[in-house]
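Hey, quick one: can you model this chain's 3D structure?
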Amino acid sequence: MKIAYVLNTYPQPSQSFIRREIQALERRGIEVLRLPMRPSDQGLVDPGDQEERTRCQYVLASGAARLLLALLACVACAPRRSGRALRLALQMGAANGARLRHLIYLVEAAYVARLTRRTHCDHLHAHFGTNATTVALLAAQLGGMGYSFTTHGPEEFDAPLSLSLGEKVDRARFAVAISSFGRSQLSRWASFGAWDRIKVVHCGIEPERFPEPKPMPKGHLRLVAIGRFVEQKGQMVLIRALADAVRDVPGIHLTLVGDGEMRADLEAAIADLGLAQHVTLTGWLSEAGVRDELAGAHALVMPSFAEGLPMVVMEAMAAGRPVLATYVAGTPELVLQGETGWMVPAGDSHALADAMVRLASVPHDKLTDMGKIARERVFDRHDIDCEAEKLAEHFDQAIKGQAT
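Sure thing. Here's the predicted structure for all 404 residues.
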């Protein structure tokens, strides 16, 4: 079995879950052709991401001439299919006033279709229901191959009509959601007849990378938050909550791992609220660096406004740390109130502050026990080899269905 993975910008620091999925499929003997549109312009600090970049064939690096020649070849070889693909691209582009952009996607899709046919791929798979899936859909139309895609959220669920999300599900051999919540969102826009083709396959972790957790630290409460500095992650609410919490827990310390467009705003808020001694910003770290930060914390805090099902929550639980998170998307499917962590309403800085104050009073042994339960739960639900096996079965069934 040979699968072509169609991706937008890859690899990226915040998308190591895709790399782990691909590698788990390869351990099962499946050949994976990596076809991102472009490389990331962010610095890749993790050696795994750096190595993964060398295995990618970047579509846009081929140049405009080769992409256009691929489209002309598709038209010459299969004029009817090409005509249908053109009409579909224009139809999807009309949904958000982006016909020109979708014509560009068609050109990219032609290159993908030609390359995957020459390299004898059996199926196309995309991650995220945005432009990568548009390219995969159009490439499937041009090349007569089946495709599937994985949605993560929240971006896809913020703009389902302009992304033609229902159309993408309806035309796919199958569609993947990473949580039951995600499946429900795809079901909103797909036809009823497509519902059985919407599968839940969790993002996964590699248990062997999480040996026996380091002991829960003692002393003042230490929290870590990990993620892109963007509005949906809720770090600004976290900073405001921290300002309230330090009045009752003066020794509390928060480490923010990540970077992004909101960094300057966060730095300004930290200074304005007098929190410089309570907050450390690390920038992006390697996977090993993230594990070190988790080991030095009592809990992960995830204050998101919108999510799919955060990988960092899985990693924290695998590291034997409870999680303080918000009631959004798929997170409550993993974090159990009072057992593996605590849940608060999204956007409520006072509730978050109160939860941090209560967390500071939880006995050390209780935190350790919660971490053990969290570790067992995430290993049971999110082992990447088990999830890759599910995905491989869906690929196999899709290919066999295509052949018949």
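One thing worth noting: The two ends are 16 Å apart (CA to CA).
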